[in-house]
Amino acid sequence: MCFKNLPIEFDASGKAHLREGVRDPYAYQSLSLHEQADKVKELLARNGHIKSVDFDPVTRVAGALAFHSVVDLKERKVIETNSMATLFRGYEVILKGRDPRDAAFISSRACGVCGGVHSTASALALEMAFPVKPPPLGIAVRNLMLALEFWYDNPLHLFLLAGPDYSESIVRTTNPEIWERATRTAAPYAKVHGYRTIAEIMTDLNPLSGSLYLEGLAMTRTAREAYVLVGAKYPHPETVIPGGMSTTVTITTFNEIYSRLSQLFDYCKKTALIWDDICDFFYDANPEYKKVGARPANLIDPGIWDDPFAYDASYENCNEWGDRRWATPGVIVDGELVTTQLQALNFGIEEFVEHSYYEQWGGHRYRTDPSGNPLSPYHMWNKETKPAPSGQNWREKYSWATAPRWDRKAMESECATRLWTIAASKKMPHTRFIEGTGHSVKMHVPESTLPDMDLEWKIPQVWNTFERNRGRAYHLVLTTCVAFDNWLIGLDLLKQGHTKVHTEFEVPRKGEHIGAGFWGAGRGFLTHHCTIDNGAISNYQILTPSTWNASPRDPWGNPGPYEEAVLNTPILETFKDAKDYKGIDILRTIRSFDPCMPCTTHIAVEGSDHVIMREVNTCACGIED
Amino acid sequence: MSTLIAGVGYHNLRDLSFGPVLVTLLQKMNWPPYVEIDDWSWGPIAIVQQLETQPNHYERMVFIGAVERGREHGQVYPYRWDKPLPSADEIQQRIGEAIMGVVSLDSLLIIMQHFKVMPREVFVVEVEPEDCEFGDGFSQGVAALRDEVIAEVRQWVVESVVSNP
Fold it and tell me: How many angstroms separate the CA atoms of A143 and A485, rounded?
């Protein structure tokens, strides 16, 4: 039994049903936030050492995020947090009424970094709805390309966005005692990455001038070069379509990709071990760092990278083909893996808008999913996007992000969840380079300039800011192994003469068809849910990793992951006076999630069934207490 | 003198798309063989990396764009790019935005300058946008400036009005 809050049970054959005798199974009572808000307001008024600290915008994140916190500088703790997505992403509105074939190209624009993951999630949703199953080479090439996309995303975060928080220039200012210790601490993995001391790593993490910063920037080029060999364009590929890929791949294409891929072998070894050294150094310097950004390990990921010989695009078989993915789908609650079934993962999700700038939608069109499992009226197949930026204050509505919940729990989306599910489930069948051991993932990275190497990511004892970063560094190792595995599979298929990368399809012009694209982004979870009525999209819902993470409070008053992680963060920064306080512990925590708040602002124009923008940037500066 | 004329801006945002739209017009005109005309409304970091592979390929660059700076409408604002670099924090912020897909003429110029891939002669021809809503076409005021901007660009490029440093 994986559900504790939703009244869902399973019969002996594993089929889900609503518990008998529950009159209104999805009904709930919302909790008012007024009392808590009044309490904080009073504390602020009465105590000089309690300060309102706002980060608007939070810099070094993708797109627009504002963060409001109230901190007690005497007790060195955070007492109130609000995460605010300040921009509206209205692709759900734009896609309504369109030809489904537009979806992959339009939804790709939801992100200026990782458009390809949206194209792919969209293609998968349509493959389920039409239905159409791509040929094996199409799937292998898609896996390869989408693994390469993370090679843009993850280094960029580790060395350009989050990395500077651990650089000499920041650490010297916020924690001089840590910097001093770093100068006399040897780096355990010096033999691999070449840095003798932790201080040397920190110096090379300095923004603009540090060689790790500059190398991270350079890696984005290598990743893009490999990616466009099959995607044609970055970040919005032209070749990812339902039924596979619309490009011709040859042995030459594979050789050209390999010349880039081989450069990544060494880089991922160094990256993983650099972040091991940074994380372990901070823990040794002050064990309190384990509490920074800590929250229960409640994680969700639909899995990614399909088995070319198992994926059939159907919802009915998604539990089976999901299990054969390179990243096993999974839900982790309090550190325990509670399901790897894609269907249970799907029908356990709901989105709430009590504290978001949306109107509640009505209706409950789908009471069950295509396999007969119960579906909530708040599930994405039933959800409608109704923007309504009103009631702007911390008690009512304060974000363009919704509050997604699984089994009514705030789940976190992280690329490291993939490592966790591979480790804990031991189901991942592609063991040429990757092996789940029950408590870790062992990965074998081939030789390049550095010798071949076995790297092991272990399920952490605590889930916090540092483990998110370490997990992302090891995700780069996973990504490299998956890319190389699919490169080998693709090459093998080509040698055998299986050159087809696409299956023809017809858009069903009549009737009702639904689909879901279960995929993942550089930051973690990604799904697209669509409904097609008589040949046109009648509903489209995108659920991104940052929607999970930036979630405002839910109807029961529970904070979203950013909010919860910052609430649990001790203030370890060194400062004598409140005016010197920089908020580095809070910023490290927010950035450790690799926030991506898509920067394109779109809304429906009144009187038109199409696009676009007006008054959608809701900055935190005018919000009422 | 190897010269680039480049438009920079988002597409389909009325006046804000002035740079890329004008480039499509310029490409249909006659220019000396040493002139390349392109839409550079793509990632500044990718542009820097591209320029690093062909050092000193361009001796002169002329950028066209519409940038909101609160100036008077109905005028063309040509200038030579010879500004000092902003603070390291600002450069870092602009790099962060650039790698996330933000298109900005200022960011492009600052990032190119920071990474030292700019030729000595860089000129900018700007207009102040009046209509920044979604859609194609320009406001009347900006549309009226089109020929003046083209003449300005041609002057920078063909008549070689460059002052010696």
Answer: 10
pLDDT of residue A609: 40
Judged by average pLDDT, the poorest of A93-97, A619-623, B5-9, B136-140 is A619-623
Report the C-alpha gap between B138 and B15 in whole angstroms.
Answer: 5
Token output for B43: 């990632």
- Helices (H), strands (E): how many in chain A? 18, 20
Q: Do A207 and B134 touch (CB under 8 A)?
A: no
* CB-based burial label for A143 (10 Å; 0-12, 13-18, 19+): buried
CA–CA gap between residue A236 and residue A121 (Å, rounded): 13
Residues in chain A with CB shorter than 8 Å from the CB of B116 are none
Which neighbouring-strand residues pair with A453? A445
Per-residue pLDDT tens digits for A158-206: 999 999 999 999 999 999 999 999 999 999 999 999 999 999 999 999 9
Mean pLDDT of A313-336: 98
In chain B, what's the furthest Cα-to-Cα distance? 42
A69: alpha, beta or left? (left if phi > 0; alpha if psi -120 to 50) = beta
Query: Across all residues in chain A, what is the average pLDDT?
Result: 91
Contact call for B133 and A235, based on CB within 8 A: no
Q: Cα angle vertex A272, ends B101, A596, to 5°?
A: 25
Q: How many CB atoms lie within 10 A of CB A610?
A: 12
pLDDT in tens, B59-115: 999 999 999 999 999 999 999 999 999 999 899 989 988 887 888 999 999 999 999
Residues forming beta bridges with residue A299, ordered by sequence position:
A332, A412
DSSP A166: G
Which residues in chain A have their CB less than 8 angstroms from residue B51's CB? none
Nearest neighbour of A112 by CB, restricted to B101, B134, B135: B101
Angle of CA points A98, A87, A83, to nearest 5°: 130
Query: Whole-model pTM?
Result: 0.92
Q: Residue with structure tokens 């006399």?
A: A184
Strand A50-55 to A16-18 pairing: unpaired
Contact (Cβ atoms closer than 8 angstroms) between residue A118 and residue A98: no
ipTM of this complex prediction, to 2 decimal places: 0.84
**Chain B nearest-CA residue for A164:** B92
Angle at A468 between CA A467 and CA A474, to 5 degrees: 85
Contacts of A63 in chain B (CB under 8 A): 100
